[in-house]
Amino acid sequence: MLPQTLPVCPVRGSVIYPTMVMPIDAGRPISIRAIDEALARERVLLIVSQRDKEVESPKPSDLYEVGTACNILKMRKNPDGSVQVLVQAFARVRVKEWLNLGDHLEARGEVIPDEPGDPITVKALVREVKDRFQALLKEGKYLPPEVAQFVLNLEDPSQLADYIAFHMDFRLEDKQRVLETASVAERLKAVLVLLEGELALIETQRRIQQQVKEEIDRNQREYFLREQMKAIQRELHGEEGAEEVEEFRRKLEALDLPPGVRQEAERELNRFARMHPDSAEASVIRTYLDWIVNLPWNTRTEDNLDLERAKEILERDHYGLEKVKDRVLEFLAVRRLKAERAKRGEIPPDEVNKGPILLFVGPPGVGKTSIAKSIAEALGRRYVRVSLGGVRDESDIRGHRRTYIGAMPGRIIQGLRQAGTKNPVFLLDEVDKLGISYQGDPAAALLEVLDPAQNKEFVDHYLGVP
């Protein structure tokens, strides 16, 4: 029989089950006072787990509703004021009423009796729980051998469920659920589910470890192969050839290249690494890679769309030409409007750069070239002038294919490298002086350059990538 009221000793991070004999360390005043009260009466103490172990002075709402009634067997006071007690648990108790007496808690409760359940079901569950428990031990879950053997020798199904729940690293909530379950069959099922979860967790850990090991092995293998390749290259080509390949590789990794461009550049670099540095083909690939790594793939200047400043620069550099300057200011005003709309999310950012190409027409010396230079200054962009007078070959625009000796990129790509940014102001000067020959019409090649719908994907024959 339980006493009418039981002193309550809150514990943190653990659950005690009936029939267990356990030492309890108590250091908080609320626990020490409860132990003293129990010793002064029938030596019966109610041990209840806290929901949150960080709470230093728990209230009834901080404790679970089900605890364990224990007899105090021994008690020892330590010099630091804490207390050690040896208790033997004998019953599950459901709290019906909490009593807060200020310096400690007490409770009125009732014993939760075990519900045996169907004997055949319980027997099958006991066998399955023991099998899963042994499987867990074989998988590396460590328990002292004497403890493991003691648990496996238990014949009482209720004790088997309780002792496994106590010794396994289950969550506090799961251990408390086992304590609160009156039906022995349901308790065994709960423990079986927890054991299966532990086995699945161990299997997942093993799979992850295997994947990590395979990844490490693959990385080490690749590292050793690369080092061997470097040693072979040093023997064949000397230190300079290997250093040149590594230099190109570092520069490529530092660039934020589009996927297609990176794939092509790495393919050429791998070919270059396998060649003798003095071969003719290596010289062609070296020049190609030099162009790739020195183009301004990621460098862009920010536009200055201050119309007043632009007007001042145009007025400073040019006298008259009012219609021309008004048209230029109108062009810049439209770009500014588009930039503001893009910032508000009304149009895609790509739409800002789409627009007409300005064409300046007039006799020599009226200021066509200088107007373009003033526009570049007003925008804060680099200025590139490409003179097309006398150009007769479309390769001057689109570049030569790399199969030709002495092949080079076209004027557009050369201008980008010269500017050092990907968005300079391009002036295609003397367009009317273009020539036509059996090698093609360069004016036709300019269509791809001047068409706003396709010039963002301009492909130079030499580079072979947009």
TrEMBL record:
Coiled coil: 185-222
Superkingdom classification of source: Bacteria
Main location: cytoplasm
Pfam families: AAA, LON_substr_bdg
Gene3D superfamilies, sorted: 1.20.5.5270, 1.20.58.1480, LON domain-like (2.30.130.40), P-loop containing nucleotide triphosphate hydrolases (3.40.50.300)
A GO CC term attached to the entry: cytoplasm
Catalysed reactions, semicolon-separated: Hydrolysis of proteins in presence of ATP
Enzyme Commission designation: 3.4.21.53
SUPFAM superfamilies in the cross-refs: P-loop containing nucleoside triphosphate hydrolases, PUA domain-like
Domain Lon N-terminal stretches: 6-199
Cell location: Cytoplasm
Annotated GO biological process: protein catabolic process; proteolysis
UniProt cross-references to PANTHER family, sorted A to Z: ATP DEPENDENT LON PROTEASE FAMILY MEMBER (PTHR10046)
Listed name of the protein: endopeptidase La
Organism: Thermus islandicus
